[in-house]
Design brief:
Layout lengths: L1 H8 L4 E4 L4 E4 L10 E5 L12 E2 L4 H11 L6 E6 L8 H4 L5 E12 L3 E11 L4 E2 L1 H7 L3 E6 L5 H68 L3 H47 L2 E14 L1
Helix pairs in contact: 1-2, 5-6
Length: 287
């Protein structure tokens, strides 16, 4: 897809050779890009080193993608040729001989995080819908563009309704994912809170048990020196006990703070905003 876009965007600026996915750039579109032979990055063969290794992050590659995204896309008719595709596309082959309308939307959802979706909506000339996956595979085929046919208002209206349905479905999926995330985070918080409290309470209980054991020993000692040693240990353990009691309060405060953060995150996710942009609408046919 990157190679096909490059061929389109640099037509007239470069000579392309498909056999080794290379091109000779003779009219650079950017001042910091040199003329010369570029080769598309590959996992199957040895890559060239340096600035002539062509890839998505190359300045020329980034220029091709960004300028391609800004192209004007008036309504047109695109005829897709599935017959000459090198591998079988069963779902697209079922559309051979059929025609219809198709639109592509870019949906951006703003909630806790920003999501982006590309949503295809398509119908054939009988009004039957074409699913998202088939539309995506359709664009793997070579095609030729022609002038747009006369608008079929009934089909265009059906297409718009389907597009709206797909937008709502994507928004619902996003909201469900947010709810699922909140439930998982809440359960994780509750398990963590329970472990933290139990650990702090166990430490306190162990210290109390040590104090009781020393107090029993103090009642049985025969010398003042032995009792002094035991009382010193009891004093140190009682100081530790007070710190452990305070630690339980600190843990509870930490739990409340994390729960507040979780609730604030949920509130941000619930404030969902979305923007939908139609990237293009075409009449299509498959041969």
């Amino acid at each position: 897809m990157f190679w096909a876009l490059t061929r389109y965007m640099l037509a007239g600026c470069a000579d392309f050779r498909d056999t080794d996915l290379s091109f000779v750039l003779h009219s650079p579109p950017l001042p910091d890009v040199r003329a010369g032979r570029y080769r598309l990055i590959s996992k199957e063969r040895q890559n060239v080193a340096g600035e002539f290794l062509y890839r998505l992050s190359h300045p020329l590659g980034e220029h091709v993608i960004e300028t391609g995204k800004r192209l004007d896309t008036p309504v047109a008719c695109v005829t897709f040729d599935v017959s000459s595709h090198p591998t079988r596309l069963a779902a697209v082959e079922e559309l051979r001989g059929k025609a219809g309308w198709l639109t592509l939307q870019h949906l951006t959802i703003h909630s806790f995080e920003e999501e982006e979706h590309l949503l295809f909506s398509a119908v054939d000339s009988d009004g039957h819908p074409v699913d998202q996956e088939t539309c995506e595979r359709l664009f793997r085929c070579d095609g030729r563009a022609g002038p747009a046919p006369a608008s079929a208002d009934d089909l265009r209206g059906l297409l718009d309704r389907n597009a709206e349905k797909h937008r709502r479905a994507a928004l619902n999926r996003s909201m469900e994912a947010n709810s699922r995330f909140f439930r998982e985070e809440r359960e994780r918080l509750e398990r963590w809170a329970e472990d933290m409290v139990l650990a702090a309470e166990k430490e306190l209980a162990d210290t109390k048990a040590q104090i009781r054991d020393l107090q029993r020993q103090a009642r049985q000692v025969e010398t003042t020196q032995d009792e002094l040693g035991i009382q010193t240990k009891i004093r140190d353990l009682q100081k530790k006990q007070r710190r452990q009691r305070q630690r339980i309060f600190d843990v509870e405060d930490e739990i409340i703070e994390k729960r507040d953060q979780l609730i604030a995150g949920l509130e941000r996710r619930m404030q969902q905003r979305s923007e939908a942009e139609t990237l293009f609408t075409i009449a299509w046919a498959v041969v």
